[in-house]
Write a structure and sequence with these properties.
single chain; mainly alpha; Multidrug-efflux Transporter Regulator, Chain: A, Domain 2; two-stranded antiparallel ribbon; disordered C terminus
């Protein structure tokens, strides 16, 4: 049976070695076998597959507890399909909300740049129109304590 060193798993999954160790510590991976002589971790194909799944979940912002639930559901297969679907759809909704927020931020930045472009060109008519668009774009933004700066 082929086994993989932690460096190989890191390279194949994109997860750092400390992340792989952490996932093992919190019970998401493993227990990972150790080389009898060196004590180094030796991942088998199942470990590599699980690490790949975790890398994908991490890439879309799934937290540790939901990763744990995902792996438990995965082990149950079809019996946990509805729960698995619901878990993934919750995260899909979160990502959709993040995309909406990012689009609002992008629109604001573009309108603000257009405002400054109009000012640079000395075009007061375009500047006035850009100010209206910036004010409209501000409505789609979520602010922290800093608020909005003109």
């Amino acid at each position: 049976m082929e086994t993989f060193a932690i460096q190989d798993v890191s390279r194949r999954t994109g997860l750092s070695e400390p992340t792989l160790r952490y996932y093992e510590d919190v019970g998401l991976l493993g227990p990972v076998a150790r080389d009898e002589r060196s004590g180094h971790r030796r991942y088998d194909q199942d470990d590599l597959d699980t690490a790949g799944v975790l890398a994908c979940l991490r890439a879309v912002g799934v937290g540790i507890e939901d990763m744990r639930a995902y792996l438990a559901n995965r082990a149950q297969g079809r019996a946990a399909a509805a729960e698995q679907r619901d878990l993934l759809l919750r995260h899909a909704e979160r990502v959709a909300e993040e995309i909406t927020a990012q689009r609002a931020r992008l629109g604001y930045l573009r309108e603000k740049a257009a405002l400054w472009d109009a000012r640079d060109r000395g075009d007061t008519e375009a500047e006035a129109a850009a100010i209206r668009r910036v004010e409209a774009a501000v409505g789609g933004l979520t602010f922290g304590r800093e608020g909005v700066a003109a």
